[in-house]
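Prompt: May I have another protein with tokenized structure?
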Amino acid sequence: LAAPLAFGQASSPVAGGVVSSQEWHVRRGVEKEEEFTGDVRYRSGPTLILSDWALYKHEAQTWQLRGHVKVDHKLNSGERIEAAGTQAFLEARSRSGWMTAEEGVTFTRTPLGGGPDFGRAQRLDWEDRRRATLTGEVHLWGPRVETWSDRAYYEGENSELRLTGGRPVLRKFVGWSEDDDWSGVVKADEIRARQAERRLSADGKVVGWLEFKDIKGFKK
């Protein structure tokens, strides 16, 4: 472990998982550090991390990542979250971190049922597997909804999406659930959507429209 390994596939147990790379350097001092270069892969439980370069600090239990960074992990709800960027920072203890990219971080959420949702923003932050925040020119789209906002907050435990900043817009398509037959567009100061409850709410100078295909059951 004291000598650097180069020009080969190296692997090391780190923070409850195993990391592999083409080059591996260990630095011992006041704080032990491990540097990984080339095809870096780190897996720990439901989380997989890929990058071109990574630095792990043992005492702080933190990761610095650069290059083609990708984080893939499973939320407590069972949904799968994938994010790709060029720089990231992870805290192993809190399972929190952030990711950025010059051309925007790309984001994919695969729910338990239905097709995946996609997104793009300037920055992604997450806390454990419970919640995520997108900031800066946020655009989300998928088979259920499409949104535009300055910020988007997602709570995994109750599948709630909250949009704020820049007068967010949400476009809702028919087919949110099997018995869903309405569509619409809403613009407001804040918008909340809960998929499990099929509930959409908006506050602050709300404008938009809703269309119901079957108005016979409207009172229900």
Q: What stands out?
A: Confidence is low (pLDDT under 50) at residues 1-11. The two ends are 67 Å apart (CA to CA). DSSP finds no helices and 17 strands in the chain. Residues 33 and 57 are 5 Å apart (CA to CA).
